[in-house]
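If your schedule permits, I should be very grateful for your opinion on a structural question. Please examine both parts with care and let me know of anything in them that strikes you as inconsistent. The record follows directly beneath this note:
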Amino acid sequence: MTTASHSIVHLRSGGVSIAYDLGHPVPRVAHWGADLGPLDDADLATLAMTSGPARFNSSLDTARAFSVLPSEHEGWSGTPGLAGHLDGTATTPRLALTGHHVGSDSAGTTITMTLRDSVAPLEIEIIHLLDIDGLLHATTRVRHVAEDTNDERAAYWLQAVNSMLPVPARAAEILDFTGKWCRERSPQRLPRVHGTHSRQVRRGRPGHDSPFLMAVATRDLGFRRGEVWSMHVAWSGDQQWYVEQLPEGAGAHAGVLGGGELLAPGEIRLEPGESYTSPRVVFAWSGAGLDGVTDRFHSALRRRPSHPRTPRPLTLNSWEAVYFDHDLDRLVELTDRAARVGVERVVLDDGWFGGRRNDRAGLGDWTVSPDVWPDGLHPLVDRIREHGMQFGLWFEPEMVNIDSELARLHPDWLLLPQGELGPSWRHQYVLNVAHPDAWRHLFEQIDALVREYAIDFIKWDHNRDLLEAVWRHPNGDRPAVHEQTQALYRLLDALRERHPGLEIESCASGGARVDLGILERTDRVWASDSNDPAERQNIQLWTSTLLPLELIGSHVGAAESHTTHRVTALSFRLVTALFAHAGIEWDITKCSEDELRTMTAWAGLYKEQRGLLHSGRVVRADLDDPAVLLHGVVATDGRSALFAWARLATSPSVHSGRVALPGLDAAARYRIRVREECGPTSLHQGAGPDWFERARKGWLELPGSVLATVGIPLPTLNPDQALVFEVNRID
């Protein structure tokens, strides 16, 4: 819904309002947050009138402004919205609005504001889409419009373009994420203070320590409480994220939330007529805590035409089952066991190509190894097809071992400075995918394999950061992360256009490339290389803040974790993988008959419940005890729900007390039961609460006021244990 009066344009959607004051040389955001309702002309004029701050002592003689592209000309002393120069000159942009356009379609309402710079020959378009889920998608396009190409200063060197929105004083806390390999998306909270909280990603990918989602919020922030203003940079290369508060504030607001692509010096050079379009920065407001932010992102992602529509197949990946030991008989036996359990897709991981018998050689040679596979992959693929299962294959196209035919034949395709190689990472280097010949080579080799084996799924890996990522040129090396990222996008787009049914997973040594840019071109992410369920519970909990469960791959591993060597119960591993796009990564040929029966029952539970898990609302409880987690999925119509109750460590308290199940209707009546297909759960008590013991035997009816408001005492589990509860509304 859009209203306008004089200089104010007011957009409303999904319980969110954003109001733009166009009555200034550069438009200003008068409000972003809770829906203000329908405002008439007088109300809009009042909103504009109250958008200006006081004029401070020892300050500018006019009130400071904060615009949609803030600059020093407006008195803004914080991070600029636009930075660049003409051969060291024209560094102080003076922008003025030349026009705007508001249009609506099925996606939402878009306002495009066009600005011209009187200092440098630039035209800037700021494009904001408020979608029907209340997300604001911000993009900026900078075009060099000079006509005099003989001017020695003709090229404009762009240094930064940032999208920013203002936030109020009550947004007093910052939440973002950090992490490492096998411990991605670890939350960190800190108070907002004067200055800049800045996170700069210089890895050529978002990284294991990706900020992922940056938020400012009221001090009572939780999953189900608090007001939140948040942001995600939808880009798979270098990034900039920040929260900034100056003593003088930001116009009438207290601070700003912003970000964009982090550009290397000299990376973007615009000749006359050329343009740069920034990555999308997605802003989300919620008055209902982090789960409210999650609702917006999940709903928007599920509306995409490219979003997976078919049931997410139960997957077996060969990596932790056989590693590089690609023996056909062993893999056939693994496939037969997988079919017995109920697996629907088998993925052959690293080791099938070239001289790839370990991680030191062969990377880049994307032809089936005749030594290991004398008849090609056909014998294995045929066996997989006989069982009615899909076939997937592992690739790492952006990387190369020096010990490979590709590196020996085309050293000029490496993405690194001329001269010495520099340090390797996991014995590999980066291939310059933006090099036209390298791009064509990759496309042709992958395309040929997809056609020959009718591949259904690609696990697309990316196992190192990009360091010294420059394109080798005779006239000097130049930075290339931006071009590398765009070339990757083109490669993925071309493969999907050639093979419309092909699904692709984004894996980057686990979860180092989890962003909405890569997910425009892929069908799920590998959240972490850790299959340890004690680590995975939190990794998946926080990954689902942004991504719905059907986009998060999670596999059941062996009892002893490959990455942590922690030993956990089968039931804990199965429950953890259930709340995701589930799979298996384990040599199940060594499983006992009891283990296979349990896994078969779990596979049946997954297939029964994936319609709910992959369409419903993710809900998470705010608990005082960090040793326990309660999370679940509630159907969009509220008729059914599935919850997981997990314990990661012991607690000082003997029991949980009453715990409310989030997302249920207090006015409804429900029936609840314990689903024990995942196997027995070890209790840290003689018996569970009375209601729990009854629900283990069958359905138990309870009013919503008890489940959703008063709460129920949950059983005390031993560490590294989890339970599943099913809840259905009684109509």
About this structure: The chain has three domains: 68-302, 315-398+436-463+505-614, 618-730. Residues 137 and 391 are 36 Å apart (CA to CA).
